[in-house]
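Students often ask why we bother predicting the structure of a whole assembly rather than each chain alone. The short answer is interfaces. A chain on its own may look different once its partners are present, and contacts between molecules only exist in the joint model. In this exercise we take two input lines together and write out one structure for the complete complex. Read the inputs first and try to guess which parts will touch.
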Amino acid sequence: MAGELFIGVGNILKKVINHHQLSGKHLRKGVSKIDPVKEFGQVSLPEVKTNIHCVTIVGQIEGHMTLPPQNKTTKYEHIIPQLVAIEQHPDIEGVLVILNTVGGDVEAGLAIAEMIVNMTKPAVSLVLGGGHSIGVPIAVSACYSFIAETATMTIHPIRLSGLVIGVPQTYEYLDKMQDRVVRFVAKHSRISEEKFRELMFRTGELARDIGTVLVGKDAVEVGLIDEVGGIGNAVHKLQELIEEKKRQKNSPSQ
Amino acid sequence: MILYTPIPPELIWERQNQETATYQEVQYSGITLLVQQGDNGSGKIVRIISSNPYAYLIPELQPGREVPLLFPQ
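Now the answer. The structure tokens for the assembled complex follow.
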């Protein structure tokens, strides 16, 4: 009895193994894409095409220096080539920039923002969670910007971290850095330079610092962000901008 | 370099002198992956670096999956 049962189990096992060998053949033909990863380190991209690409900017924006590993960072050398590829690729018609960042390197942040501003393809930004400090110029750099109802944006002055030489030049340099950010934001959103500076130096709102925290619709009311919304609104707006762009291309006389 | 962030610098630079970075960037079919190096030549996917939203839907490239770091000759 026990022997028969064992044989029975053995047959089932054989069948299972045969089945696996069969599907193994299929794998090599490319029906499933799981095994090729293990064997050759190759996968094929799904056939689905998308006309919009998405750039996510999370954690600290990392520029000239590599930050210690406890920081989650978005590296400038990853984002810039992605934007170049998006600008060049004929199948990509627009880009969605999703921000949940605590800020970071001023120059890297401004570089990303300048790249987005100068792209010929429409860009829509969406601030989710947080778009603080240097995240602000990136958020306003898109053609149209959204902020989630619960998302926040912190606006505060730039100051030196690390070694500070107490000479007037140091403060002038910082001032110039700050001017770059303020001017960029004023140029690419509805907020004025004066208003942005006022928010930057406001006292009594931040526990550790001077400055302002804007929550969702506050950012829209001061003119920094265009609209309160989520991913649905952002994708819809991007498709609209793409259509508009196509219409302009088709009727160049207007 | 100037950091413009509400995060205090002491938190950012806390573990500056500790060497813990075992991450490696590898390419699979043109997609850049951040991979944590493991034993026996394999690595665990930590992050996908791509602007193509569909790159994040490939089941083989989901974070947490093991991928070989040394390819057969």
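Check your guess against this: Helices of chain B lie at 9-12.
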